[in-house]
Amino acid sequence: MPHATPRGLGRLAFGGDYNPEQWPEEVWREDVALMREAGVNLVSLGIFSWARIEPRRGEFDFGWLDRVIALLHEGGIRIDLATPTVVPPAWFYREHPEALPVSRDGTRWAFGSRGAICHSSPAYREAITRVTTALGERYGDHPALAMWHVHNEYGVPVLECYCDVSAAHFRRWLADRYGDLEALNAAWGTAFWGQVYGAWDEIQPPRLTPTVANPAQRLDFARFASDSALENFRHERDLLHGLSPGVPVTTNFMVSPTQCDTMDYWAWGREVDLVTNDHYLVGEEDRNHVNLSMAADLSRAVGEGRPWLLLEHSTSGVNWQRRGIAKRPGEMARNSLAHVARGSEGAMFFQWRASRAGAEKYHSAMLPHAGTDSRVWREVVRLGADIGRLAELRGSRTVADVAVVWDWQSWWAQKLEWRPSEELNARERAEAYYAALFDRHLTVDFVAPDAGGLERYPLVVVPALYLATEGAGRRLRSYVEGGGTLLVSYFSGIVDEHDAVHPGPHPGALREVLGLTVEEFQPLHAERAVRLTAPGGGPELAADTWAETVVLRGAEPVWEYADGPAAGGAAVTRHALGEGAAWYVSARIGRADLDAVLARAAADAGLPERDELPRDLELVRRSGERGDYLFAINHNDAEATLPLAGAAGSRSGAGSGEELLTGERVSGKLTVPAGGVRVVRLDG
Ligand code: GAL
Description:
A ten-stranded mixed sheet has the order 12-11-13-14-21-20-19-16-17-22, sandwiched between helices. By secondary structure, the protein is α/β, with parallel strands linked by helices. Helix 5 (about 120-140) runs parallel beside helix 8 and helix 14 packs across helix 17. Helix 1 links the parallel strand 1 and strand 2 (about 40-45). Bound molecules: beta-D-galactopyranose. Pfam families: Glyco_hydro_42, Glyco_hydro_42C, Glyco_hydro_42M. One of its GO terms (cellular component) is beta-galactosidase complex. It is an enzyme of class 3 (hydrolase). Keywords: Glycosidase, Hydrolase, Metal-binding, Zinc.
């Protein structure tokens, strides 16, 4: 079901997690009435209700769920029905204490919160089979069922389990991957520090060791952990496909690298019928809408550009952040519509009604503790109406200008200990380059290192790809030779899939395309900056944390180190290769200065300058059967005006269209109120 969307909505989705089991039944009728008032058409139901559904092993109580589903159905609200497998009931752990996961230091976690799961546990597998089958049999063909929501946020906050059962499972996974011990010993480089294995049962998960554990073993264990959870997801998905044919099955991701670092979402994206994502705005962060956009672009990417759905975000403050900063008026709508601009088929929240008890009672909700006489509720109702006006966008696709290569496995590898500097930070670089592209009003498609089809992007950016195979290097090389412009940041292309340095000088997998080698890494002292100057013209730039001694082998210097350990050497280079060019940035240039480098590469790629547009006026295009849609999201406190023709790379020559939220005709220029959003269907 590769192009699935929730069944039977007819509009974009609007709603949230609904936890009626936390409330007396009298409240349910009021819930449904208020949902209708707010324009809610989809709720995620039953995520944490295993203990209510199966109060004792094998004994099911579906009465309450039947009643609440009937009420929702009567109210015209469709259901994203969860399998509650993220929190097995207390009785399960009493029977199977061995199914509680063990941390790296050997501590067994306890029941009493959520997500305490050992994905290798046969008892857990048996229990999820029973409850998923019971749910699938009972509701698989219910007319209100829009989709299945398996589990909840696999991998958040923990995924790895180091117990003995997991150890045995890990060995089976390794045997599948390597076939024999000789291959494993070679891949893990066990000759180093005398770690050679002579029998499979000598191999353990990388538990706490006196000093740094084998990095290849750790990387494989991270892969194994993601894969073992994926096995459980696939198992539930396949049960549901069998019992509920034609109904899409999803599980909610948390693709933002700021929020989850345990899952290989490239692999997971291939397994769901519809990508769904949860995103929690970091209230305290300056310009946090940039990070939101990055999460939305990643969500679209893991579904290979297909429509996806934002399954959770917040109406206001988030109580697990250090400070639950309340959203400012209008911010929730900007957040929701930014996700829609970037491909979401709607906007859903955690949660419908604020909980009175439990760990999340201070988390904002669609219906807050303050009730309906509140700013949040009024904004929810307004947003529901706005989402309703965008029904025709269903199935249209976001159009990107630039590709950014990102890889979870490479990130995991780079984060391990004893890298050349503790301050090397892949996520920080990815976010910095993303922000620089955002500031140039360019829309990003994230791509995996093994992705084909790069030639459709004039510019490909590689902000942090420490682990890159020879194959990835060859693909980037042929992209450049064919006329593409590539921009690569430092500490990319260094190791292969086993975290072994590519033979020869750095950056092994990329030195040919970049036309250079790196003779020596030059990590900088804390707080010490270096200056970069451009002999051929260009602003002086500042860098900190990282520099390199670069040896040119075909590339030309564009910026050079004016001081610091690599003084006099090339810092930023350009290599003309075939029909294209490959840029290399060997230093950690701060966010503010990065734009100067990006501007040069973007010009090389023939991308338009959009200097006339205000900063933080977010422009994104979706394209569908009825035409092109321009989203203009104004994150500023002042009104913004932009020329419609050519905005966000639109094909529209006429520069006119219909604004869907106000119903007004617009022509020539579009004005976006301070903090407001406009969505224009451009005339074809
Ligand atoms: C998500 C989770 C929800 C809720 C929400 C707000 O990560 O899926 O169940 O906990 O965060 O904290």
